[in-house]
């Protein structure tokens, strides 16, 4: 099945995806920085600051995991836009409503297929 969206709708959503990709890559740099800073802190002083930096590290790691998932979702969506299958549910093959993609442009599946 090909995309149920009009070419204009795909263009609009693709622009949004590219914007989100740029924003995500920027925030991933900040996370890189946070993860690196924590490593340096480990060798630094005091028990409390060590606990602090361990907490920050686990926060940063959790954030990094979510960023990686999001990054691949956005990249996959852009790939589908390239192939002309953007807007088709990857699970059931039915069209994903524009309203859903407008809110979650990276969504690979329709609302029925979201677990
Ligand atoms: Zn579906």
Task: Indicate the topology.
Elements: H1 7-42, H2 47-83, H3 98-103
Bound molecules: zinc ion (ZN).
Zinc ion binds next to loops.
The total strand number stands at: 0
| Number of DSSP helical runs | 3
Mean pLDDT: 89
Question: Hetero groups bound?
Answer: zinc ion
Look up the CATH topology: Four Helix Bundle (Hemerythrin (Met), subunit A)
Number of domains: 1
Low-confidence stretches: none
CA-atom Rg in angstroms: 19 Å
Largest sheet: none
Backbone structural class: mainly alpha
List SSEs in N-to-C order: HHH
Shape: elongated
Describe this structure in words.
This protein has a single domain, classed as Up-down Bundle (Four Helix Bundle (Hemerythrin (Met), subunit A)). The model has no long low-confidence stretch (mean pLDDT 89). 69% of the residues lie in helices and 0% in strands. It is built from three helices and no strands. The protein is elongated. The protein starts with 6 loop residues before the first helix and ends in a 12-residue tail after the last helix. The chain is mostly helical. The structure holds zinc ion.
State the gist of this model.
This protein has 115 residues and is mainly α. It is built from three helices and no strands.
Keywords for this structure?
115 residues; mainly alpha; Four Helix Bundle (Hemerythrin (Met), subunit A); 3 helices; 69% helix; elongated
């Amino acid at each position: 099945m090909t995309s149920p969206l009009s070419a204009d709708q795909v263009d609009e959503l693709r622009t949004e995806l590219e914007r989100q990709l740029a924003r995500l890559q920027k925030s991933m740099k900040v996370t890189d920085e946070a993860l690196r800073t924590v490593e340096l802190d480990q060798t630094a002083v005091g028990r409390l600051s060590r606990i602090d930096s361990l907490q920050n590290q686990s926060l940063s790691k959790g954030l990094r995991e979510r960023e990686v998932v999001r990054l691949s979702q956005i990249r996959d969506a852009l790939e589908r836009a390239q192939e002309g299958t953007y807007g088709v549910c990857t699970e059931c093959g039915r069209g994903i409503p524009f309203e859903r993609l407008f809110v979650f442009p990276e969504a690979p599946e329709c609302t029925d297929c979201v677990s």
